[in-house]
Every structure is written in structure tokens, then in C-alpha cells.
């Protein structure tokens, strides 16, 4: 049975649906990332689950028990839900120990103290137990906030961009620690982010959200390699798009033919692929590589510009046949001069064909 189940949540603001029939379910010990662009309704969804915002229709269930919807509405503090937001404000006048102990109501003094010590040890901050928040760095405060949120053993943890205030290096470490801790506690985690990297790194399942709707759910690998639509591709990376028309279940382009099974004749399609999948070849006296069944036909372009990005190089090509720009990324240093002719091929298994 899922720890958290959300069915058909709907919430409108000024007549506009901001959460539009959202359904989700999360098992204990599982992390689902609600991923989507700014304003798509992620925080509103989280707030409804937490009980600080009301849905118009739809239900929220905790371990199969209705906690909200259908006339029921358990107050936030009785939902057994832990919250962690970007602005996680610790209580400045309480010590680290008292901050972490804040949500602990049951148990003896000794038991509560033991729990506080256990958690501070887990986030590697036991030495700060008697310090005050202002004596800690931002990252340390964040870990205290995490310990505080986890202390009462929430069955569900809702996190809204909890790592966005941290610098990159710190963030990776804290993300991993957070995950370990939450998995050890067997909580169901719903983490909101607009950063694909964060979702890929943390999620067991990604729920891709757009304009109030969940457009795709799946493991990070699935969402990345089998995106539901063009926007789902471009949410995770830069993309190239070429247009074509389908005839006999094939879309014919300067790069050869692409399979478009089940697409009716005459349909305009977009063939979408990522820059890292473009294959680059040198020009051999005006000729490129020979066609292959797997990669189709090569097409020629001139280097428009090359940029070194650190772990990879980005090269843009102005294509001979239609003057359009295509992007390719190559690991390491590769910076051909502008104007240099090169040949591009597009491996078929890395392409997505969507109706335009
Ligand atoms: N109380 C409110 N009254 C009116 N409109 C609201 C209210 N709360 C949210 N909205 C609107 O609902 C939409 C979704 O807001 P929400 O905060 O859920 O987005 P989000 O996905 O969390 O975005 P971000 O990534 O920027 O945090 C926005 O257009 C926002 O302006
Ligand atoms: Mg938000």
C-alpha cells in the first residue's frame, strides 16, 4: 500500500486551474520528485498535501486512510507529515538541540535527548549541539533544519526546493546525506524541484509537471530516454529539432529516413534529438561518411561557433541544406574554427519523433 496517495487534486486561482487533476502515489522509503518549470503548480500541490491549502476536489490518503477530501480535512499538525522548505528558518533563540527537539512531543526527556543526539550525529553536527543557529554556516543550519524535520519520524516528508540556498559543492553532499537519512527512516518523500539534475540525482520516480498537470511519471532513466513529448525532452537538456512530413510511416529528411510507426500520411512531425547524440565527422574532399542503416545519411554544415564548457565542448553548425543551426556537444576539448565544413549524423535510437 502506498504511504502517500493523491487522487485527482484540483485547485483553481481566479478561475485558472493551477493544480489540474494531479494524482501521485509514493511507497515508504521512496523518493518522488515533482519536477517542472516555475509556476506550474508544484508548491500548491505540496501545500494541499500538507494541509495548509485546500483543494476543490480530490483526495489525499495516508497509508490508505483518507486525510483530506470528501468532506474530511485533518489539520496539518495531525497529518504526520514533515515539511522542509527553502526558507527553513531555525528558531534563533533556541539552541541546536532545542531546535531539533522542537517537534518531539512524546517520550521521556532522556528519550528525546537521545533522539536529538542520534540525528545530530547522523548529520555530523553533534559538536554543535549546544550552539545557536547564528554560530553555524548556511549548510550547517540546513542540516539542523533537516534533523528537526525528521526528528518526529514523519511518515511523509514534503520538501520544497530545500537545497536551493546552498552552493553547489555543499549541495551534493547534503542531498546525499538527506536521502540516506530519509530512506533509513522509511519515509515517503515528495521533493519539489525545478532542476532536472537534482531530480535525476535524487528521485526513484520523477513526476514531470506542466501547467498544473502531471505529464509523465517514471524512473529517471525512463523519463529521460522515453520522454512523453518535445517539452519533456527539452526540459532535461538542450535539443535540436528538424521538421518533416510522414509518408508510409517514414519521415524523410536530409539525414535520411526516420521511422514514424502509426503516424498517418501527411502528418507533420518533429524529430527531436539531444546535442550530445549528434555524431560529427570530418570532410573528405567534399564527401562525408557513407550512409548506414543505423545512423542514416550524413549532412554537411559549417561550424558557426565553438565553445569550451569545461567537461564538454559545444559546437554549432549552420547546415548547408536549409541554413538551420544544429548543436552538438563533444566530451573534452573540441573547438573547430568557424567556417570549417563537417558532416553530421543522427543515430536513430537517440531520436524522438513527435507530431508537430
Ligand atoms: N494564493 C494564491 N493566489 C493566487 N494565485 C496563486 C496563489 N498561489 C499560487 N498562485 C499561482 O499559482 C501558480 C502556481 O504556483 P506554485 O507556487 O504552485 O508554482 P511552483 O510550481 O511552485 O513555481 P516555483 O517553481 O516558481 O516555485 C502560479 O501562477 C501562482 O501565481
Ligand atoms: Mg514553488
UniProtKB/TrEMBL annotation:
Q: One GO CC annotation, please?
A: ATP-binding cassette (ABC) transporter complex
- Provide the protein name: ABC transporter ATPase
Q: Which Gene3D superfamilies match?
A: P-loop containing nucleotide triphosphate hydrolases
The organism that produces this protein has a lineage beginning with: Bacteria, Pseudomonadati, Pseudomonadota, Alphaproteobacteria, Rhodobacterales
For this UniProt entry, the molecular function terms from Gene Ontology, in alphabetical order, are: ABC-type ferric iron transporter activity; ATP binding; ATP hydrolysis activity
| Native source organism of the sequence | Marinibacterium profundimaris
Q: Where is the ABC transporter domain?
A: 4-236
Q: Report the Pfam families cross-referenced here.
A: ABC_tran, TOBE_2
Q: Which GO terms describe its biological process?
A: quaternary ammonium group transport
Question: Which keywords label this protein?
Answer: ATP-binding, Cell membrane, Ion transport, Iron, Iron transport, Membrane, Nucleotide-binding, Transport
Q: Which InterPro entries match?
A: AAA+_ATPase, ABC_SmlMolc_Importer, ABC_transporter-like_ATP-bd, ABC_transporter-like_CS, ABC_transpr_FbpC, Mo/tungstate-bd_C_term_dom, P-loop_NTPase, Transp-assoc_OB_typ2
Q: Which residues cross the membrane?
A: none
Give the top-rank taxon of the lineage listed in the UniProt record for this protein: Bacteria
Amino acid at each position: 500500500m502506498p504511504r502517500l496517495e493523491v487522487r485527482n487534486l484540483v485547485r483553481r486561482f481566479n478561475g485558472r486551474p493551477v493544480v489540474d487533476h494531479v494524482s501521485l502515489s509514493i511507497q515508504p522509503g521512496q523518493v518522488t520528485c515533482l519536477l517542472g518549470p516555475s509556476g506550474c503548480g508544484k508548491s500548491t500541490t505540496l501545500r494541499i498535501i500538507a494541509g495548509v491549502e485546500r483543494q476543490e476536489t480530490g483526495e489525499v490518503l495516508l497509508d490508505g486512510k483518507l486525510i483530506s477530501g470528501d468532506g474530511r480535512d485533518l489539520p496539518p499538525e495531525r497529518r504526520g507529515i514533515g515539511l522542509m522548505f527553502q526558507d527553513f528558518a531555525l528558531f534563533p533563540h533556541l539552541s541546536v538541540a532545542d531546535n531539533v527537539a522542537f517537534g518531539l512531543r512524546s517520550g521521556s526527556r532522556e528519550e528525546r535527548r537521545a533522539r536529538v543526539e542520534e540525528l545530530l550525529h547522523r548529520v555530523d553536527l553533534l559538536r554543535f549541539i549546544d550552539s545557536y543557529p547564528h554560530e553555524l554556516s548556511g549548510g550547517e543550519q540546513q542540516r539542523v533544519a533537516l534533523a528537526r524535520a525528521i526528528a518526529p519520524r514523519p511518515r511523509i516528508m514534503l520538501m520544497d526546493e530545500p537545497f536551493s540556498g546552498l552552493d553547489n559543492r555543499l549541495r551534493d553532499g547534503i542531498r546525499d546525506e538527506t536521502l540516506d537519512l530519509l530512506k533509513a527512516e522509511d519515509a515517503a518523500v515528495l521533493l519539489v524541484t525545478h532542476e532536472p539534475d537534482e531530480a535525476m540525482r535524487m528521485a526513484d520516480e520523477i513526476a514531470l509537471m506542466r501547467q498544473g498537470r502531471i505529464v509523465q511519471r517514471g524512473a529517471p532513466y525512463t523519463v529521460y530516454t522515453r520522454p512523453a513529448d518535445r517539452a519533456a525532452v527539452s526540459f532535461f537538456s538542450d535539443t535540436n529539432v528538424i521538421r518533416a512530413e510522414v509518408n508510409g510511416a517514414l519521415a524523410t529528411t536530409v539525414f535520411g529516413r526516420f521511422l514514424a510507426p502509426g503516424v498517418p500520411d501527411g502528418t507533420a512531425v518533429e524529430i527531436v534529438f539531444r546535442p550530445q547524440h549528434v555524431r560529427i565527422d570530418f570532410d573528405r574532399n567534399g564527401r562525408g561518411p557513407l550512409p548506414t542503416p543505423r545512423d542514416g545519411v550524413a549532412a554537411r554544415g559549417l561550424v558557426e561557433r565553438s565553445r569550451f564548457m569545461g567537461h564538454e565542448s559545444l559546437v554549432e553548425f549552420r547546415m548547408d541544406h536549409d541554413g538551420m543551426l544544429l548543436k552538438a556537444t563533444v566530451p573534452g576539448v573540441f573547438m573547430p574554427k568557424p567556417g570549417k565544413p563537417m558532416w553530421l549524423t543522427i543515430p536513430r535510437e537517440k531520436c524522438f519523433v513527435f507530431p508537430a
